Amino acid sequence: MNITIISVGKIKEKYLKDAIGEYSKRLGRYCKLDMIELPDEKTPDNASEKEELQIKEKEGDLILKNIKDNMFVIALDLNGKELTSISFSNFINELGVKGESNLTFVIGGSLGLSSQVLNRANYKLCFSKMTFPHQLFKVMLLEQIYRAYRIMKGEPYHK
């Protein structure tokens, strides 16, 4: 299976880069992983709703340019469906069984995802109703994908 993670914003912190590197290495046993980091737009302090919408649309255009027609797109969205780790593993496995071999996860910038990206998504997934820094979220997503494969293969994982 091919997994692509498209994320808005550069990872600057060494500890996050190290964690991303570690999970990327671990996932190499299970899938082909590709990560695309897109620049985020600077949001001015006290930005108006219109300015925020324009920023999300600009970031959304960059995201959409990296999505191919054959990709099954999973948008990380607060209004998406929440799954347990086991349900997430089953979801990924079922997509593979149905012939979906190009999964693409999309992590938006600090303002979230544009409506165009959400409309393109085949599925909307919510990890939690809490807000997380989008740089940290990439590590969390990689860990859950890794955990999903461990569960699929019947390998031990921390419950």
UniProtKB/TrEMBL annotation:
<feature type="binding site">
    <location>
        <position position="108"/>
    </location>
    <ligand>
        <name>S-adenosyl-L-methionine</name>
    </ligand>
</feature>
<keyword id="KW-0698">rRNA processing</keyword>
<feature type="binding site">
    <location>
        <position position="76"/>
    </location>
    <ligand>
        <name>S-adenosyl-L-methionine</name>
    </ligand>
</feature>
<feature type="binding site">
    <location>
        <begin position="127"/>
        <end position="132"/>
    </location>
    <ligand>
        <name>S-adenosyl-L-methionine</name>
    </ligand>
</feature>
<comment type="similarity">
    <text>Belongs to the RNA methyltransferase RlmH family.</text>
</comment>
<comment type="subunit">
    <text>Homodimer.</text>
</comment>
<keyword id="KW-0489">Methyltransferase</keyword>
<dbReference type="GO" id="GO:0008168">
    <property type="term" value="F:methyltransferase activity"/>
</dbReference>
<keyword id="KW-0808">Transferase</keyword>
<dbReference type="Pfam" id="PF02590">
    <property type="entry name" value="SPOUT_MTase"/>
</dbReference>
<keyword id="KW-0949">S-adenosyl-L-methionine</keyword>
<protein>
    <recommendedName>
        <fullName>Ribosomal RNA large subunit methyltransferase H</fullName>
        <ecNumber>2.1.1.177</ecNumber>
    </recommendedName>
</protein>
<dbReference type="GO" id="GO:0032259">
    <property type="term" value="P:methylation"/>
</dbReference>
<dbReference type="InterPro" id="IPR003742">
    <property type="entry name" value="RlmH-like"/>
</dbReference>
<keyword id="KW-0963">Cytoplasm</keyword>
<comment type="function">
    <text>Specifically methylates the pseudouridine at position 1915 (m3Psi1915) in 23S rRNA.</text>
</comment>
